[in-house]
Amino acid sequence: MAAKVSKVQEDRLPGHESRLEPKPDWEPRYPGSDRLKGKVAIVTGADSGIGRAVAALYAREGAKVAVLYLCEHDDAKETARIVKAEGSEALTIAGDIGDKAFCEDAVGKVMKAFGRIDILVNNAGEQHPDKDITDITDKQLRRTFQTNVFGMFYLTQAARPHLKKGAAIINCTSVTMYQGSGELLDYSATKGAITAFTRSLSENLVGEGIRVNAVAPGPIWTPLNPCGGASAEKLEHFGESTPMGRPGQPSEVAPSFLFLACEDASYMSGQVLHPNGGVIVNG
């Protein structure tokens, strides 16, 4: 993998999957079995990477998908095409989840288009590498928490009135929450907050019949790292430190999001799944 990786220079995150080489593998591996038939899902960051793979798999399993993304219109259009090719319906909504008003507006658009919300996937996030804590600017620190933590709160708050018994919320945390990361101090801190939020929100909503869980991916080949989210040194050997010796693909992470969204996980809440290449973590 390392020999094939080329860093994509972007003015800002999240970056275009359409420009990434090699292309991430997002395609579902198996035929659908209607595990999400009749459901409506909101997936943030669904224009590319893990979000696209989740949107594709959810669509194959029968869900209509609202694709929330920041600004990569070409990638979002492709995700919508993928969802429709699976025989489902897609709604693309561009904007910043770190803006509370946008989250409220987006949920309103989903309700107008589909009339319900059954699954909320808080997947969108950003990261910026810094080798020294003194290099993290106030602007970067606030921006990382605004996207990764505040955005998760804002969207969940907006969706909450529409989530009924049987609904599922799945948040994306990270292996860095458990292992730490020497060059992702602010990002890792947000992922710790997300795990705590997941467990606390589960306690808050479990009595309402709403399950809240999380997925903690390891190093996954998406635009996030090569488009500014990782140093050149890290990219050179991206994923090689895992027991499996390679980075994962979005298609290897999406099934965790499917399991937690469907009735197969009806007795699970407040839990975290770890598609991370064999890294042993506690929690």
From TrEMBL:
<feature type="compositionally biased region" description="Basic and acidic residues">
    <location>
        <begin position="7"/>
        <end position="31"/>
    </location>
</feature>
<dbReference type="Pfam" id="PF13561">
    <property type="entry name" value="adh_short_C2"/>
</dbReference>
<comment type="similarity">
    <text>Belongs to the short-chain dehydrogenases/reductases (SDR) family.</text>
</comment>
<protein>
    <submittedName>
        <fullName>NAD(P)-dependent dehydrogenase (Short-subunit alcohol dehydrogenase family)</fullName>
    </submittedName>
</protein>
<dbReference type="InterPro" id="IPR036291">
    <property type="entry name" value="NAD(P)-bd_dom_sf"/>
</dbReference>
<dbReference type="GO" id="GO:0016614">
    <property type="term" value="F:oxidoreductase activity, acting on CH-OH group of donors"/>
</dbReference>
<dbReference type="InterPro" id="IPR020904">
    <property type="entry name" value="Sc_DH/Rdtase_CS"/>
</dbReference>
<dbReference type="InterPro" id="IPR002347">
    <property type="entry name" value="SDR_fam"/>
</dbReference>
<feature type="region of interest" description="Disordered">
    <location>
        <begin position="1"/>
        <end position="31"/>
    </location>
</feature>
<keyword id="KW-0560">Oxidoreductase</keyword>
